[in-house]
Amino acid sequence: MSECVLLTTSSVVIYVRYDDRVKTARFEEGQLVWYYSPRRRKGMCRKWECSNVGGFRVMKKLNDVNYIIQKSPRTKPIIVHIDRLTPYRGDIPAVWQTAADIVSASETINAGPRNAGPNRNAGPVAG
């Protein structure tokens, strides 16, 4: 067998093995994520720095690898690659809790009364 054929087959095997090991990450709209944003601080060891910033919400999926995320409802959204995102685990940040409460309250107000018929809590009707 020639060396060219061996190199071709070994490269195919390497690609197949790589594709088998890779786990694709998927994020849903509204899911909380950590955003990898390494910063260099003078006098700090890089190993011990926290490079993930958290509490971002996925606003929209642009394509398979790019997402729009937002830190809070009032901040500017940013476009990031999926490799910089990690699923958020923990308590929901207070910024997003209040936003969720406001949204659910406005939905309740806009929905109107659930029973459009007579008021069932008014008691007996005199008549």
What's the helix count? Answer: 2
Relative helix content: 25-40%
Helix and strand composition category: alpha+beta
Helix-strand string? HEEEEEH
| Major sheet size, sense and barrel closure | 5 strands, antiparallel
What would you say the CATH architecture of the domain at 24-105 is? Roll
> Terminal Cα separation, in Å?
104 Å
What is the alpha-carbon Rg in Å?
Answer: 26 Å
User: What top-tier CATH class of the domain at 24-105 fits best?
Assistant: Mainly Beta
Q: Which spans have pLDDT < 50 for at least 5 consecutive residues?
A: 104-123
Strand content: 15-25%
The neighbouring-strand order within the major sheet is 4-3-2-1-5
Mean pLDDT value: 77
How many DSSP E strands? Answer: 5
Q: Remind me, CATH topology of the domain at 24-105?
A: SH3 type barrels
Specify the overall morphology: extended
Tell me what the structure shows.
By secondary structure, the chain is an alpha+beta fold. It has a domain at 24-105: SH3 type barrels. Helix content is 29%, strand content 21%. It is built from two helices and five strands. It has helices spanning 3-21, 94-111, and strands at residues 32-36, 52-61, 66-70, 78-81, 85-87. The chain has a five-stranded antiparallel β-sheet, with no helix packed on it. The termini are far apart. Mean pLDDT is 77; it is low at 104-123.
